[in-house]
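Example 9 (inverse folding). The structure is encoded as follows.
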Protein backbone atom coordinates (compact mmCIF):
# COMPACT_ATOMS: atom_id res chain seq x y z
CA UNK A 1 0.00 0.00 0.00
CA UNK A 2 1.41 3.39 -0.98
CA UNK A 3 1.64 5.99 1.73
CA UNK A 4 -0.71 8.94 1.44
CA UNK A 5 2.35 11.12 0.80
CA UNK A 6 3.34 9.40 -2.46
CA UNK A 7 2.23 11.71 -5.25
CA UNK A 8 0.19 10.22 -8.07
CA UNK A 9 2.09 10.25 -11.34
CA UNK A 10 -0.15 11.92 -13.90
CA UNK A 11 0.58 11.64 -17.61
CA UNK A 12 -0.81 14.60 -19.55
CA UNK A 13 -1.11 13.88 -23.27
CA UNK A 14 -1.62 16.84 -25.60
CA UNK A 15 -0.44 18.40 -28.81
CA UNK A 16 -2.38 21.33 -30.27
CA UNK A 17 -4.21 21.89 -26.96
CA UNK A 18 -1.18 21.64 -24.64
CA UNK A 19 -1.26 25.29 -23.53
CA UNK A 20 -5.03 25.85 -23.62
CA UNK A 21 -7.15 27.03 -20.71
CA UNK A 22 -9.30 23.86 -20.36
CA UNK A 23 -6.16 21.76 -19.86
CA UNK A 24 -4.57 24.29 -17.48
CA UNK A 25 -7.82 24.24 -15.46
CA UNK A 26 -7.88 20.41 -15.43
CA UNK A 27 -4.26 20.25 -14.20
CA UNK A 28 -4.98 22.90 -11.55
CA UNK A 29 -8.07 20.94 -10.37
CA UNK A 30 -6.13 17.65 -10.29
CA UNK A 31 -3.27 19.26 -8.33
CA UNK A 32 -5.80 20.61 -5.81
CA UNK A 33 -7.17 17.07 -5.17
CA UNK A 34 -3.92 15.80 -3.72
CA UNK A 35 -0.20 15.30 -4.26
CA UNK A 36 0.60 14.67 -7.93
CA UNK A 37 3.52 14.95 -10.29
CA UNK A 38 2.76 15.78 -13.90
CA UNK A 39 4.50 14.86 -17.14
CA UNK A 40 3.42 16.33 -20.49
CA UNK A 41 3.70 13.88 -23.38
CA UNK A 42 3.54 15.36 -26.88
CA UNK A 43 3.29 12.80 -29.69
CA UNK A 44 5.66 13.86 -32.47
CA UNK A 45 3.04 14.26 -35.19
CA UNK A 46 3.98 13.37 -38.75
CA UNK A 47 2.52 15.67 -41.39
CA UNK A 48 1.55 15.27 -45.02
CA UNK A 49 4.31 13.60 -47.00
CA UNK A 50 6.22 12.63 -43.89
CA UNK A 51 3.46 10.14 -43.10
CA UNK A 52 4.06 8.43 -46.45
CA UNK A 53 7.84 8.68 -46.35
CA UNK A 54 9.02 7.75 -42.87
CA UNK A 55 7.69 9.29 -39.67
CA UNK A 56 11.04 8.42 -38.02
CA UNK A 57 12.73 11.03 -40.26
CA UNK A 58 10.41 13.73 -38.94
CA UNK A 59 12.24 16.27 -36.82
CA UNK A 60 10.87 16.95 -33.35
CA UNK A 61 10.90 20.75 -33.74
CA UNK A 62 7.12 21.10 -33.65
CA UNK A 63 6.70 18.88 -30.58
CA UNK A 64 9.60 20.69 -28.87
CA UNK A 65 7.95 24.06 -29.59
CA UNK A 66 4.73 22.76 -28.00
CA UNK A 67 6.69 21.67 -24.90
CA UNK A 68 8.52 25.01 -24.69
CA UNK A 69 5.23 26.89 -24.69
CA UNK A 70 3.15 24.52 -22.57
CA UNK A 71 5.50 23.28 -19.82
CA UNK A 72 5.92 26.64 -18.03
CA UNK A 73 2.15 27.27 -18.14
CA UNK A 74 1.30 23.75 -16.96
CA UNK A 75 3.95 23.99 -14.22
CA UNK A 76 2.29 27.18 -12.98
CA UNK A 77 -1.13 25.46 -13.04
CA UNK A 78 0.23 22.36 -11.26
CA UNK A 79 2.16 24.36 -8.69
CA UNK A 80 5.21 22.20 -9.41
CA UNK A 81 7.65 21.51 -12.23
CA UNK A 82 6.05 19.60 -15.11
CA UNK A 83 8.35 17.31 -17.05
CA UNK A 84 8.12 17.16 -20.85
CA UNK A 85 8.40 14.13 -23.14
CA UNK A 86 8.22 13.76 -26.91
CA UNK A 87 6.64 10.48 -27.94
CA UNK A 88 5.92 8.25 -30.90
CA UNK A 89 3.78 9.84 -33.68
CA UNK A 90 1.07 7.24 -32.86
CA UNK A 91 -0.54 8.68 -29.70
CA UNK A 92 -1.51 5.27 -28.28
CA UNK A 93 2.01 3.90 -28.83
CA UNK A 94 3.45 7.08 -27.25
CA UNK A 95 1.21 6.64 -24.18
CA UNK A 96 2.01 2.91 -23.86
CA UNK A 97 5.75 3.65 -24.10
CA UNK A 98 5.52 6.35 -21.43
CA UNK A 99 3.49 4.12 -19.08
CA UNK A 100 5.87 1.18 -19.60
CA UNK A 101 8.98 3.32 -19.08
CA UNK A 102 7.79 5.57 -16.26
CA UNK A 103 4.82 3.86 -14.62
CA UNK A 104 2.01 6.43 -14.44
CA UNK A 105 -1.06 6.22 -12.19
CA UNK A 106 -3.52 8.22 -14.27
CA UNK A 107 -3.81 9.93 -17.64
CA UNK A 108 -5.25 13.26 -18.77
CA UNK A 109 -5.82 13.43 -22.53
CA UNK A 110 -6.28 16.91 -23.93
CA UNK A 111 -7.56 17.04 -27.48
CA UNK A 112 -9.43 19.21 -29.94
CA UNK A 113 -13.22 19.40 -29.94
CA UNK A 114 -15.05 16.19 -30.90
CA UNK A 115 -15.86 17.67 -34.31
CA UNK A 116 -12.21 17.84 -35.40
CA UNK A 117 -10.26 15.60 -33.01
CA UNK A 118 -8.44 12.74 -34.71
CA UNK A 119 -7.70 11.29 -31.26
CA UNK A 120 -11.40 11.05 -30.39
CA UNK A 121 -12.16 9.50 -33.80
CA UNK A 122 -9.47 6.90 -32.99
CA UNK A 123 -11.25 6.33 -29.63
CA UNK A 124 -7.97 7.09 -27.86
CA UNK A 125 -9.50 7.68 -24.38
CA UNK A 126 -11.22 4.25 -24.40
CA UNK A 127 -8.07 2.53 -25.61
CA UNK A 128 -6.03 4.14 -22.83
CA UNK A 129 -8.70 3.21 -20.26
CA UNK A 130 -8.19 -0.35 -21.54
CA UNK A 131 -4.61 -0.15 -20.24
CA UNK A 132 -6.11 -0.12 -16.74
CA UNK A 133 -5.57 3.52 -15.77
CA UNK A 134 -8.14 6.20 -14.97
CA UNK A 135 -8.42 8.63 -17.89
CA UNK A 136 -9.73 12.19 -17.90
CA UNK A 137 -10.48 13.65 -21.34
CA UNK A 138 -10.31 17.42 -21.73
CA UNK A 139 -11.73 19.12 -24.83
CA UNK A 140 -12.28 22.81 -25.48
CA UNK A 141 -15.84 24.03 -25.64
CA UNK A 142 -17.00 24.13 -29.25
CA UNK A 143 -16.87 27.74 -30.34
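The amino acid assigned to each position is listed next.
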Amino acid sequence: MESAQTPSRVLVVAHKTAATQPLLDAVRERAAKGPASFTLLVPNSAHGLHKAVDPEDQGAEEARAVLDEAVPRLSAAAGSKVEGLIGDPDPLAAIQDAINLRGFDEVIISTLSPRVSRWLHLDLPSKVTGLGLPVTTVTPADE
